[in-house]
Amino acid sequence: MRADVSAATSGSQNISYEVDWPLIRQRIDRRVQPSHSWGWASPQLEPLEFSLVVQAGEDDFACFVKGNNEVFLPRNSTSGCVDLYSNLDKLLLIIDPETYLPYIIRTEEQHPIYGYATKDVYLSNYKEVQGIKFPHTIQTIYNSSSQRLGVVLEDFVIDKINATAEFPKDFFDPGSDGQNRIMQKKTPGVPSGLVTDYSTSLLGSPVKNVSVDALKSIRPVDLLQLYWLIIDDSHDLGFKQLIIEFENEVIVCDAPPFWSEAVMEWIKKTIGKKVTYVAPTHHHRDHSGGVADYVHAGAKLIIPEMAVDYWSSVPGAQFITFNQTHPYVHRDNKIQAWFNWADQAPHAADWTYVMVTEQCPNKDSPIFVFEADTWEAGLSVDLGNQQQMRQWLDQTLDDGLPRSATVMPTHGKITPLEQLINITAYPYPDFDISRWRKRAALCNESSVKKNKDD
């Protein structure tokens, strides 16, 4: 799977150092311009400006003293001290054999999808400043041992070096207010690769306060087998999952990190069944970081066949696959769920959506759709991306989804599809469920058989 979009398009920074052995202090003053993909979280796409101070040694810390690196937070909110993880015992310095200058600084980490991974800082384009050679081109490259991966996390060019700079007395202090001075330590059980994913994507920290008691659900009265599970109700864009209950199985749609155990416990207590399948809408980490937990608990993965190589890195993963012409259909005597993918999908190459209706629907039957990130349903139109929204409507029209369907989003509110059609001024004709996949959802006329496990 290749990168779909950039988290940021441009930026600038000053990096300052102070060495007072055995203490080493660093301050990063950074300005980042978010890419258009963050329009849903920050409609004005204001730059992120933050200052982070770091101290290595016995009293180590890492604290934001100005701003934050989370695109959906107010720009004037200061994050304070954050989790600190020192991996210096596994730091590898690779020297250029010709110049004898540092070439790569490597750290190792575990990633929930990629497994063993390396994060390499490449140093090149050395120039001499006051008798000392400094690299002027810096790249951070992420590599995986389980699949072909060489992703550029960030790169920058150093255009000025001051080797004799003087700093104000409190320049490297962790902050004066009480909250900023609460030093954090590494949270147990958090893969460092997941921290890398979130921080480089402008999502801040992946660590959440998880509790099964915090989970809430909404069930449509006309299709009680569906549970719109609200795992974060702190704001309208908070995360939701879809739980589909069948007679003998349970399918969990989407898998944000850290919530898997709580969700499985909630399902066991509320539904009385075990999770048998997990279906991530796409590979972006906030939607898939918990997949490995479900697989470890025995669930099979429902994914488009083009994503098999990507998900094969998860130990013990078993797949049920589908493609554009052959969706995966899961049925029992009450409901049917269709998992759909299209070439040139909106938002991400492996992006999918789910349609659920009665086992034998008629023109008045309820139709529910679960989608992620293409439409922040029920929220302000300026949070959406018109191109993505219309691209999804292109797909639903080809599939034959009636405009009477109701959307259950991961971010937003339960909202009629009709609202999206109006927002986009899309010329969407009126038809009923008989048009879905050329009458495939109707009883005794299905041209699509239930897929077998691969």
TrEMBL record:
Gene3D superfamilies membership: Ribonuclease Z/Hydroxyacylglutathione hydrolase-like (3.60.15.10)
Organism domain of life: Eukaryota
Protein name: Metallo-beta-lactamase domain-containing protein
InterPro entries per record: Metallo-B-lactamas, RibonucZ/Hydroxyglut_hydro
Organism name: Fusarium oxysporum f. sp. pisi HDV247
Pfam families (UniProt xref): Lactamase_B
Domain Metallo-beta-lactamase: 243-322
